[in-house]
């Protein structure tokens, strides 16, 4: 069972509760939220409401999600393991792999592969997401850390929540930047015109900060390193699309894809954490995947 709670701020007053919660909890569809309301699994100030209820300042909303127990199969798959001990496992995720089971992906996820490789994973996130502390988009490659026990999970989750984890990505973007390095501080919320996308917007958004520096420049493309100080959905993809430099291959956010990339060329390159058991500072790095390296090689040939 999952339980969530939040307090309504003045800026959100007057919004229908189903619309508000769908914006706050981007993994939950509006129809699913409406079902929860109908089943009295969502309360406001400990009272049940209907889906047309309009929230007011200081309303205390509580959500209960009862997950149906279902067996997740352990499926033998190749894992590019960067580090492993009795508490954590760190992998270099492939670009075409979903992290945990979801509609359309039941037996081909990272969780399925981890269950086949590891005897135990933390149970904090329930039966569908054992061990999963953070996520990467399906077509984003790179470093992903999973917890083998609940103690490690709680420690890592707190590190991500407090933003003490350092996360660095490599991205190949379209065009050339005017500055060698910089900071993007632009709030991100759900795109009002397309609920499957995020966008930079002033209202109904959360602060999002990305720091970048140029790694390598090409004629019409740039390889950059991005350190994200916040973890908003699609943050890097949205920020650089907003600047007019979408990530190569990311057609959802406007890439022309003149390099014929089969996915967005975004890779979680470096991760710095404190080990959940020892407290030791640990740095992990993951090599770029072959498709990413192949396109960089072609761009370098054009420079000669």
UniProtKB/TrEMBL annotation:
Residues 15-76 form the RNA-binding S4 domain. InterPro entries: PsdUridine_synth_cat_dom_sf, PsdUridine_synth_RluA-like_CS, PsdUridine_synth_RluC/D, PsdUridine_synth_RsuA/RluA, RluA_PseudoU_synthase, S4_RNA-bd, S4_RNA-bd_sf. One of its GO terms (biological process) is enzyme-directed rRNA pseudouridine synthesis. It is an enzyme of class 5 (isomerase). The lineage of its organism: Bacteria, Bacillati, Bacillota, Clostridia, Halanaerobiales. PANTHER family: MITOCHONDRIAL RNA PSEUDOURIDINE SYNTHASE, RIBOSOMAL LARGE SUBUNIT PSEUDOURIDINE SYNTHASE D. This is Pseudouridine synthase. It comes from Halanaerobium congolense. It catalyses: a uridine in RNA = a pseudouridine in RNA. GO terms for molecular function: RNA binding; rRNA pseudouridine synthase activity. The active site is at 137. Pfam families: PseudoU_synth_2 (PF00849), S4 (PF01479). Responsible for synthesis of pseudouridine from uracil. Belongs to the pseudouridine synthase RluA family. Keywords: Isomerase, RNA-binding. It comes from the Bacteria. The keyword Protein biosynthesis does not apply. Its EC number is 5.4.99.-. SUPFAM superfamilies: Alpha-L RNA-binding motif, Pseudouridine synthase.
